[in-house]
Specification:
315 residues, 4 strands, 66% helix
């Protein structure tokens, strides 16, 4: 070899080493720390979907209950009832007319309608049966008093006038029923919150066991990552991202099924509207619609389930 020819440079093994590729990045590119599909993780996704579906049903049912209770309170709160009882030695029809006149003179009253004798008889037929001679029974007569929208009549003064001028008459402002409906609505909300708390607790427990099982299965990989310098935060982040996606998928399936179910119920309610069955259902449970707020609540519940799943896995 002459002195003018360049010397041949022998290649060394470390010449092909890429310093930008760290062992952690190489391990991450080769295979994920948490397997993307396994029987345990598919089962966990199903559990999250079921829990989200149950929680969505609970939230939707509570909102339907609140809507129905609010409608009932509004309907009952617009009317009061005066009851005139028959008494010996008194003219029932005269007492009825006098009580109606006192109600009409009260500020805030929109309409006064005394029930006739036949209408009063028909009110008790569902309990006593039709075709009975009810003339000898002391059946009271009712006066339905409708209130002006937004008005608050002085019921205490009206009671005093009725007691002073029409002794057999009594006023019922349905306060007891309104309080009962308010208590029922509050109970429904409390029950929904309790069920939601139980669902979240069950989800956290399921995610905890699934995460521990996945870590035990992949223990050699985790130890190897620690050996090459991976931190606990890096490994926890891998688990958190994986379970966040898993929780979102499971929540979307369960929440989506609940949204479809409420949509079908709302469509069926609109389909049967005006029929006797539809009127009975509407009178009992309202319009079976959770509204835009209800659907937004289910979407927020899906995000909450995904967040709870990710945080439980990281912890």
């Amino acid at each position: 070899m002459s002195m003018t020819e360049p010397a041949e440079v022998l290649a060394e093994p470390w010449d092909e080493f890429d310093a930008s590729a760290s062992p952690v990045r190489s391990a991450q590119a080769a295979a994920p720390i948490v397997p993307r599909s396994s029987i345990a993780l598919r089962s966990l996704a199903a559990v999250v979907a079921i829990m989200t579906f149950l929680a969505s049903l609970t939230v939707g049912a509570a909102m339907v209950m609140l809507s129905a209770a609010s409608s009932w309170q509004s309907e009952v709160g617009r009317e009061v009832t005066i009851q005139v009882r028959p008494m010996a030695g008194r003219d029932l029809e005269a007492d009825l007319r006098k009580a109606a006149a006192i109600a009409r003179a009260t500020p805030g009253i929109a309409d006064v309608r005394p029930y006739t004798k036949d209408e009063s008889m028909r009110l008790v037929e569902p309990w006593l049966g039709a075709g009975l001679a009810l003339d000898d029974l002391p059946i009271p007569r009712l006066i339905v008093v409708k209130l002006d929208p937004g008005a608050r009549p002085d019921f205490a003064a009206l009671r005093r006038l009725l007691a002073a001028q029409v002794a057999p008459a009594s006023l019922d402002d349905h306060r007891r029923w309104i309080d009962s409906m308010r208590t029922m609505a509050e109970t429904a909300v409390a029950a929904a919150i309790a069920v939601l708390a139980l669902v979240l607790a069950a989800t956290v427990l399921s995610v905890t066991f699934a995460t521990r099982g996945t870590m035990a299965t992949n223990r050699p990989i985790v130890e190897a990552l620690h050996y090459v310098g991976a931190t606990n935060a890096f490994i926890a982040g891998q688990f958190q991202r994986h379970f966040l996606v898993l929780g979102f998928k499971g929540g979307a399936i369960g929440g989506g099924a609940a949204i479809v179910l409420f949509g079908v119920l709302e469509a069926a309610n609109a389909w049967f509207a005006g029929s006797p069955q539809g009127d009975e259902i509407t009178a009992l449970a309202g319009n079976l619609s959770i509204g835009v707020v209800g659907y937004l609540a289910i979407l927020l519940l899906i995000a909450l389930m995904a967040l709870v799943t990710a945080l439980a896995s990281r912890h």
